[in-house]
Automatic annotation (TrEMBL), chains A, B:
Protein name: DNA-processing protein DprA
Region (Disordered): 1-31, 415-438
Record's compositionally biased regions (Basic residues): 1-19
Signal peptide location: none
Organism from which the protein derives: Micromonospora rubida
SUPFAM superfamilies tied to this protein: MCP/YpsA-like, Winged helix' DNA-binding domain
All copies of domain Smf/DprA SLOG, residue ranges: 140-338
Family per similarity comment: Belongs to the DprA/Smf family.
Length: 438, 438
């Protein structure tokens, strides 16, 4: 398909088709407006990712779960407290109804697990995600989303099918911005969707790279899609909304207060096939996304940087401490990790083939035993090379044919090329191979 | 001991004390002048590292091995050819005698495995070294040295006991030079001997760093110690000879023609506890030293660099392809690899402790739910934080005591610090955690 020209969604995109039973959320009952309203209300009552709410929705369906919670029937004390606190703010159902109306006014859509055609299946793996030593609530409550808002003609599932997350520091260096832009461009150019968080720095650079390639990019937000944060990226968000997707678990108008960025990160990690960390300081939120990618079994990739850069300390720590973290230096390495098996394999880094590579052991010894300047007689050369006279003569005629040495009346001489003696130029970058002295 | 002030060697340093049998080379017979002369002659007849010669010396002793080779009794055809070719150059014994005289004139010494006090035991591990896919002669013939020339008051064994090799590209970048100098300085400053090959670029930077720290550095040469190569580093070699050691397997006057640099690299790799590769292009001699360190069971370490730098391509490839290659970013990481067990452990990279780190789950939620500007009433705050009213009030008074929030008549407000709201500064470098919007 041509990913450059997005399908436009019909005006009635909000109207749900009867979804029937969904294997995805184990939801019971058809996906009625009531269920949709309940999912929205539940998302408002308890922050997305709350495990017990997601489990109840699977068991009882959204509407019944909403009734239960509003009746103070939440299983955990802290959740009952949270629901009670929110309820003091307003009536969950009317808040949800307003959100639905606002969503329609925005021309946005709400996607639920009942929309099997559009729900991104990989986020369901969050059911099984366990973060090592996850004692903070944001590390514990990492269930799949109840629903997702999006503002695009793109079917969500299709857009995320071949996707890679590129995340990193907000206070990125020029180096990091350059690398992230290149990655975003190169991945999008190869029809991979570039997913990130829309933050300043690396996130924005990755989005821009993808947009510049005319490719598809998805910004997963930690606030309502009608007021993407940060404001400084407003123009970027507009470009993304035009050709790509803005996605959020939070209803329009929702504020991006800090815990939501960590809650959101689990979706970036789970919805993609792999996460590339470009720059991260010693203590960094980008590493949180990375750890979530690891925990949910996605390919964890890290771009190294100068050891002199504080913005790469976190990246290097991950490479040292996480055996499964893969060092990548560019798009080919990333494709090697996330590409279909067999396809997209990165070629090993190699210097250009040199004529010397064609020489056998003895010919190489003879060549390398030639003086840099002047001529040498065959006896002396054989001695230096440690080969017998016959061999020396045989190899010399070969080297002569290859245009590497020339016979003179008083012996043999190297044929020097502009780049220096044959095959020495690559050696010039080596720390332990040197050329013979002048 | 104070490694800054080297013991001066006696004038008669050349005179061998009766070494008796040596476990090191399994040599038989005492280490007579004849044996010494034979070792020198053998080193000249066949390049150092030749396995069959080393084996014969172990079985028959140096003198008998020399007789055997000169009688055309070398086991391999190529070796017989090499011996014959050299012999056409001159008489092995007289060449060796001249070398001994020249060594004495230089005030240099020859160390053999019979000098159990001074012979560096780790080089003997080269007996067991096997290079994967080693088809070139330099990859096959990697036996321990027959003898080593040195020009220093330092006992060789003592100097190499706590040693690390730092190698890398000759066409190093400013970044690589900086890192190598820092490593050389930091290691020497902690009483580690810095070993390298004396080449331009990374090697020279590592030596200089060690010298600047007033520490000990060893240059293992691929030519005679009386004409260290490259000439461009002559001043550096003089400084090393003064306070450190110049070491070589080749007799004074020997030329550094290319195969010798690879032959030499096995000694750098084996004599040290680990090898740090700082910069290397895709095809690089430094990676050869690295592979030898791997093959002989030393700690293989690699310093990453910008993925945009051709001089780091080889380093990154090693980190990707060699599971045992360890990414290191500085001296603490290197010491962690080579340091005595338990000692020299690198502290994990951490941002400075912040007051926020002392807060529990709920207090953090409450703090993070505070609006950046203005005040908020407790009900709304509790709702945003998802905690009950009682908890919100309890945590607020804690935050108030910590000076993070202030109570106003119309609610609570953040106490903003110069660096921004408490604990937000470190988060500023994160790609996926953002501050609440203004």
């Amino acid at each position: 398909m041509d990913r450059r020209r997005p399908r436009r969604a019909g005006p009635a995109a909000l109207r749900r088709r009867p979804g029937g039973h969904s294997a995805q959320d184990g939801g019971r009952g058809v996906n009625t407006e009531e269920d949709l309203l309940a999912r929205v209300a539940l998302t408002w009552l308890a922050e997305p990712g709350t495990r017990s709410v997601h489990r109840l929705v699977g068991e009882l369906g959204p509407a019944a779960t909403l009734d239960l919670l509003l009746d103070g029937g939440a299983p955990e004390e802290w959740l009952r407290a949270a629901v009670a606190a929110r309820s003091r703010e307003g009536d969950a159902r009317s808040v949800a109804a307003d959100a639905l109306a606002r969503t329609q006014r925005l021309g946005a859509r709400i996607v639920t697990p009942d929309d099997e055609e559009e729900w991104p299946p990989r986020v369901e793996d969050l059911r099984r995600m366990v973060l090592p030593g996850g004692h903070r609530r944001v590390d514990r409550e990492t269930a799949p989303p109840l629903c997702l808002w999006t503002r695009s003609g793109w079917p969500l599932r299709e857009a995320l099918d071949r996707s890679v997350a590129v995340v990193g520091a907000r206070a990125a260096t020029g180096y990091g911005m350059h690398v992230a832009t290149e990655l975003g461009y190169g991945l999008a150019d190869r029809d991979w969707t570039v997913v990130s968080g829309g933050a300043f720095g690396i996130d924005a650079a990755a989005h821009r790279g993808a947009l510049n390639a005319g490719g598809l990019t998805v910004a997963v937000l930690a606030c309502g899609i009608d007021q993407p944060y940060p404001m400084g990226n407003a123009a970027l968000f507009d470009r993304i909304a035009e050709t790509g997707l803005l996605v959020s678990e939070w209803m329009p108008g929702a504020e991006p207060f800090r815990p939501r960025f960590l809650i959101r990160n689990r979706v970036i990690a789970a919805a993609t096939l792999g996460t590339v960390l470009v720059e991260a300081a010693a203590r960094s939120g980008a590493t949180q996304t990375f750890n979530r990618a690891l925990a949910v079994g996605r390919r964890p990739m890290v771009v190294p940087g100068p050891v002199t850069s504080a913005m790469s300390v976190g990246a290097h720590e991950l490479l040292r401490e996480r055996p499964s973290a893969r060092l990548v230096t560019g798009v080919p390495h990333v494709l090697e990790e996330v590409g279909r098996i067999g396809a997209d394999l990165a070629p090993p880094a190699r210097a250009p083939q040199r004529p010397r590579d064609l020489l056998d052991d003895e010919a190489t010894l003879v060549l390398e035993s030639m003086p840099r300047r002047g001529t040498v007689d065959v006896d002396r050369l054989a001695a230096r090379a440690g080969v017998d006279l016959r061999t020396a003569l045989r190899k010399l005629s070969l080297l002569e044919e290859l245009g590497m040495v020339r016979r003179r009346d008083n012996g043999y001489a190297l044929v020097t090329h502009p780049a220096g003696a044959p095959g020495t130029s690559p050696a010039r970058v080596s720390g332990s191979i040197a050329d013979p002295p002048p």
